[in-house]
Design goal:
mainly alpha; about 900 residues
Length: about 900
């Protein structure tokens, strides 16, 4: 069962069914039938690693050059989930080694990284292998560095970097595979996989059927259902299997014939009844079988006892050692399943030569530790390396220590490993140090916070690995909270960690306090805001107030958010910092537009004036200011459209889109295209609108991953198509996909808009039988309920108007009247709203009142709608014809002709 490091190594016993499945997967790949993926699940010690090694050896022995190959890598335990792109780098290097003999020198420079600690140079290695990736990492790093410095981290704009990097890495990996024979990739211990590598695997799985590559993942299920990285991996495997991207096979206990084979290989002289007794007692669990065989002696005959626990077996073996040797093993166990002799010597305070010799004797004379190759980050250390024979032995040895012994030894191990400054140290070594600082008790809290914050920044900037960065931020916050209140740097560390953590998680915030699996975002923001107040630094106060405004928007709605965002603007004005004021004003202008269109217009126009007149804003290439400028410019354009200035909106947004097309990042391009398409639709230019929306969808499809704006653009396209009878079915498919993606991404400002579009599309698609009307009504009701809490008045008005139309179609005239009047009443209270056509609300209310037999009210509403259309037509100038606006927009036609039937 030869499990590496985790369980006892024994001879492999053939798993017939599982080996046959692996051979079948290889056959598919080598005969051109395309690749597929398989997960081998099982508890620790069941023989998964042995199965993969045996398959790899069989492929090497039975397949000639060019026929097929198996390439194996392993996710690293303990620090594995903190290594961004760790296993992917190893895989690429393995494939590169295979190509070296074909193209000498091409990959030699890449392979040289392994001697210096490959993980520290993961972005460099990836950049060297993957065409164009270096520029992507460099640009992403610049944006992230500037964003962190300003306190306005636009991680919604950095996600394209991460998605783009994953796509490019998969392209390069497949290119390497195609240069060699058909390949089966074996990745063991996937439960330790880092999120960045898992993102690459997600992209790879979707391309397997068309490529000469298969994928096999070894997965230990021990921690699959306990909160932590392993459960995250289990959830991902479950989703992949549900989506048909892979199959899962469970490796259960060894069958009786396999146990008998193992007994014969270890003890040929043993009686036949021994294997039968072993099978019955152990249920074929490989590690129990092996331990029992290790304890068996010929004089025992067929009698064998299953240990009441593995601990007892280990305790019996440890008692054979003298106390000083047991102490060395306990120190080693504090470092982990694998440990270094030099570290043990430094913690013990003993000469290294003496410790090396004692460990050598323990390994030679007892079955407790085995010599091991040191990890990559320690290969240049003058040290021997050992690993415990199996996980159970390590766990028992470590557990023999008192809590304070553990803390003290972890602290001394961290100190022993910190022989140089952390900056420039290989990432693996930094992760190892941070792990021990985390467990080192009170004396290590500040050092732990510092180490984890450095890891978080580097994960976000160097590798664009946001999930790893989140975990490090959480460790910083945990350590800082435990620091004494009088610690001088406590508040600043807390603010930095909270800012980064909330920026990293912002794209997952939902209309509740906790994003899935995440922190209480508003409580964290409030904690940072209070810390900034104690620090008395205006810059920190502005940043944390702005951040609190964002969390309030997600958790409590628009109104409390606006109060806090306005306070950020006022603080920035008092401080006199143009950068902070510009960023705060743009954010406030964008959000206040959702409630008071005129106020938003004023703020955004002032921000535009600032950017144009102050060289500290417009005269710099700061990516954060560029991001804020882009958001402000496009928001100003769509606000002008919502205010009735259609020509000016078209000019501004066309100019903005063209400039964004020429940018290298293009992060905000899907938003700008959405706004430009809305303007074209408002002007009756439906062909141009469809072309623009398809450009936006293609752009994000190439970038990969879910996106709230991708969903919104898909919903707008569906709304365009549903009005063409021949494309109705396609429109219904599009809007269903758009709503599913909206539910997954859940951007608070977009959810009610897309839900309302879904309801209206169902209304427009409903035939005489009234099909879809009930579903449309449920969606509109849900928006009414949600917007009363969130404060998104524009969507609340639209939802009431939609309900009036739906109820009228269902024959409920009284209910329709009530909903129509509610919509108009709220509109009259707040005035024009973004993403809402005033004339549309008035017109459909007139339709309802006509049907209800209230012609005077209907006429008054219709006249108001006509004045609104006329006002907008008067402002149309330049190349756009007002006639097209009046004649090609069906709503405007209907308004001019008078209120009739809804459809």
């Amino acid at each position: 069962m030869a499990e590496t490091g985790a369980v006892v190594r024994t001879g492999f016993v053939d798993r017939v069914e599982h080996m046959d499945e692996l051979r079948s997967l290889l056959a598919d790949v080598t005969t051109g039938r395309g690749g597929r993926a398989l997960v081998v699940d099982g508890v620790s010690g069941m023989g998964k690693s042995a199965l993969l090694r045996a398959f790899e050896a069989e492929v090497a022995a039975s397949h000639g050059s060019g026929v097929g190959r198996a390439v194996s890598v392993r996710c690293q335990p303990s620090i594995g989930s903190g290594l961004h792109y760790g296993v992917i780098v190893e895989l690429l290097l393995q494939l590169a080694r295979d190509q070296e003999f074909k193209q000498p020198g091409v990959f030699r420079r890449l392979l040289s990284f392994t001697g210096q600690g490959v993980v520290r140079s993961a972005p460099e290695v990836l950049s060297a292998i993957v065409p164009g990736l270096g520029a992507l990492f460099t640009l992403g790093k610049e944006v992230a560095e500037s964003s962190l410095a300003s306190g306005s981290m636009p991680f919604d704009s950095l996600l394209p970097f991460q998605q783009g990097a994953a796509a490019q890495i998969v392209d390069a990996l497949l290119d390497l595979v195609r240069q060699g024979p058909p390949t089966v990739v074996l990745i063991d211990d996937i439960q330790y996989g880092d999120p960045s590598s898992l993102l690459v695997l997600d992209r790879l799985l979707r391309r397997l059927p068309d490529e000469p590559i298969g994928l096999v993942l070894g997965h230990t299920t021990d921690g699959a259902y306990v909160d932590g990285p392993a459960s995250t991996v289990e959830d991902l495997l479950h989703d992949w299997a549900k989506d048909g991207l892979l199959r899962r096979r469970v490796l259960n206990g060894l069958p009786r014939d396999a146990v008998a084979e193992l007994v014969r290989s270890r003890h040929p002289e043993a009686p036949r009844a021994l294997s039968e007794q072993l099978s019955r007692l152990t249920a074929g669990h490989a590690v129990f079988v092996t331990l029992c065989l290790e304890e068996w002696r010929p004089e025992d005959g067929s009698v064998v006892e299953l240990p009441s626990s593995l601990s007892r077996v280990v305790e019996d073996r440890l008692r054979l050692l003298p106390e000083p040797d047991r102490e060395l093993l306990m120190i080693g166990s504090a470092q982990g399943e694998t440990f270094l002799s030099r570290t043990v010597a430094e913690v013990k305070g003993a000469p290294h030569d003496e410790v090396m010799e004692r460990l050598r004797l323990i390994a030679a004379q007892h079955r407790l530790i085995l010599p091991e190759q040191p990890p990559g980050w320690a290969r240049l250390d003058a040290s021997d390396c050992y690993r415990f024979e199996h996980n159970a032995l390590w766990g028992v040895v470590y557990g023999r220590q008192t809590p304070q012994q553990m803390r003290s030894r972890h602290a001394r191990i961290a100190a022993a490993l910190t022989s140089e400054a952390l900056d420039g140290m290989p990432l693996e070594r930094r992760l190892e140090i941070a792990r021990h600082l985390r467990s080192g008790g009170t004396e290590c809290l500040l050092a732990s916070a510092e180490a984890h914050y450095g890891l978080a920044r580097d994960a976000a900037m160097e590798g664009l690995s946001f999930a790893e960065a989140e975990r490090h931020c959480e460790e910083v916050i945990k350590a800082v909270r435990d620091l004494p209140k009088q610690e001088e740097s406590r508040d600043r560390w807390l603010i930095q960690a909270v800012e980064l953590l909330l920026s990293l998680t912002e794209v997952r915030w939902r209309g509740q306090h906790r994003p899935a699996g995440g922190p209480d975002i508003d409580a964290l923001a409030a904690e940072a805001e209070a810390a900034a107040s104690r620090c008395g630094t205006p810059e920190l106060a502005i940043r944390t107030t702005l951040l609190r405004g964002k969390t309030l928007l997600a958790t409590q709605g628009l109104v409390p958010s606006l109060d806090k965002l306005r306070a950020a603007v006022e603080l920035a004005e008092q401080h006199g910092d143009p950068v902070a004021l510009f960023v705060a004003r743009v954010e406030y202008g964008r959000q206040v537009s959702k409630r008071r269109l005129a106020d938003g217009l004023t703020q955004l126009q002032e921000a535009e004036r600032m950017y144009a007149s102050d060289p500290r804003l417009g005269g710099t290439g700061d990516p954060v200011l560029q991001h804020a400028r882009n958001l402000g410019e496009m928001q100003l354009g769509i606000t002008l459209f919502d205010s009735g200035h259609l020509s000016e909106a078209l000019t501004r947004l066309s100019r903005c889109v063209q400039r964004l097309r020429d940018e290298s990042l293009k992060a905000e391009l899907p938003i700008a295209l959405n706004y430009l398409a809305q303007v074209h639709m408002g002007l009756g230019a439906y062909e141009e609108a469809e072309e623009i929306l398809r450009e936006a969808l293609d752009f994000e499809a190439g970038r990969g991953g879910d996106s709230g704006w991708h969903a919104y653009n898909k919903a707008l396209l569906a709304h365009l198509l549903v009005q063409q009878p021949t494309r109705r079915d396609h429109a219904l498919e599009l809007i269903a996909d758009a709503w599913a993606e909206t539910e997954r991404t859940w951007l608070a400002n977009l959810v009610p808009i897309v839900r309302n579009l879904y309801a209206e599309i169902l209304l427009l698609a409903a035939d005489e039988s009234g099909e879809f009307l009930d579903q449309a009504d449920r969606l509109a009701v849900a928006t009414c309920v949600e917007t009363r809490r969130s404060g998104m008045i524009r969507s609340e008005i639209a939802a009431h108007s939609l309900r009036s139309r739906i109820l009228l179609r269902k024959g409920d005239t009284v209910g329709a009247q009530d909903q129509a009047r509610r919509a108009v009443r709220i509109l009259d209270e707040v005035g024009d709203m973004p993403a809402l056509r005033t004339e549309e609300v008035l017109y459909f209310s007139a339709v309802v009142q006509t049907a209800a037999g209230v012609p005077e009210e209907a006429h008054a509403l219709l006249e108001r709608a006509r004045r609104e259309v006329a006002r907008k037509a008067e402002k149309i100038t330049g190349d756009v014809s007002p006639d097209r606006f009046l004649t090609r927009v069906p709503l405007n036609n209907a308004i001019l002709q008078g209120a009739g039937d809804d459809q």
